[in-house]
Automatic annotation (TrEMBL):
Protein's name in the database: histidine kinase
PANTHER family: NITRATE/NITRITE SENSOR PROTEIN NARX-RELATED (PTHR24421), NITRATE_NITRITE SENSOR PROTEIN NARQ (PTHR24421:SF10)
InterPro entries linked to this entry: HATPase_C_sf, HATPase_dom, Put_sensor_dom, Sensor_HK_TwoCompSys, Sig_transdc_His_kin_sub3_dim/P
Record's compositionally biased regions (Low complexity): 318-332
Family annotation (Pfam families): HATPase_c, HisKA_3, Sensor
Domain Putative sensor, first and last residues per copy: 24-207
Naturally occurring in which organism (per UniProt): Streptomyces alboflavus
EC numbers, comma separated: 2.7.13.3
Amino acid sequence: MWADLRGGGRRYLWGTAPWRAAAYVVGGALTGVPVLVTLTASLAVGTVLSVTLVGLPLLAALAFAGLPVAALERRRLRLVDPAPAPTPHRAPDTPGLTAWLRLRAREQATWRELAYAVLMAFVLWPLDLVVAACTLALPLLLAGAPAHLALAGGPAGGGVRPAKLWLVESCPAACGTAALGLVLLVALLYPLGAYAAARAALARLLLAPREAETHALLAEVTRSRARLVTAFEAERRRVERDLHDGAQQRLVALSMSLGLARLDAEPDSPLAAALATAHGEADAVLAELRELIRGIHPQVLADYGLPAAIEDAADRSPVPVDVDTGTDTGTPLPRLPEPVESAAYFAVREALTNVARHSGATRAAVHARHARGTLSLTVRDDGTGGADPARGSGLTGLADRLAVLDGTLTVTSPPGGPTVLTLEIPCTPRPPSGPAPVE
């Protein structure tokens, strides 16, 4: 709104800003009445019933009366202030009404919103009403003087008093009053817009998140993302375990049964040929399932850790890969939190897949170290370079996955090579037992 006012007279008058300001002020006057009635009635009833202790819960509930008012006011702010006004409240860590009430009672935003509700009920809406009456109602009543005079029977009806200001007894006087009302309406649209902007600034000051609350909300989002990653990894392991212990075992039994049936069938008979085909298909499906299980969550990663998993990924790469995880130098990688190991392993797999498919490299190298609370992993190849993360979703997906763990992904790939992919994830070594912490 301030930008519209500073933009000049025509820009402000011919735009939607005056009507949005009018709707904001009139809406404040209309909203304040039920807020006043609700607060005063609840306070009166709670005070009377508090003698019998029945009213104490009602009085306690008044502490949260500002929550719905604040939610409505943050939505109304869009009329004059398009900047987002998100809620300053955090989500409870545990479900249930008790956790929600306990959290809200500890938040400063709850009490600021209650103060705003009281201010709105006793100060702001009467002020809104006065401003709306002076800047809108008065000019419109003057502008309606000809219609008012006509409804009163014309000049023969004894005249009218628009807005109770002066007597209008003739049509020329009514037209002059109407012209004055229109001029006054246009002139008063500027102070109306200024008041609406100041009113919105006060609402934003009390109802929008402050810097400390914004940091708390961001910290909560970060923790929730970490919990989601942990839950995703647990679900990934469950799916891998179910496939390994369920579908894979049944396929192994099926393959063995088909093999035994082939032994009982007559050689070179149609039945033997059909059983051989079925046996081959079962073996192919079993091989694909094993590869799928390895892609979901490799057992070597869960059993032996990241160095062995990287060695396994390098052995499966069609491009020769030199692996250095510190084992030869006496500083091997420790066991790291499961989400970190999983993210690093799949980053190596994605990088080696890109090397084989797109780089034209003849050799690659993987270097991994954990020092000063950070896992650093580098994948280098001697290919043609020119890798662009924007051309595919693989590297972008890796960057998003690392961001959840506060990690970073850097790709350096000048034309002609070499291509170097570097990732860093802050983490602490996994303790000998118990859950794996993630920083």
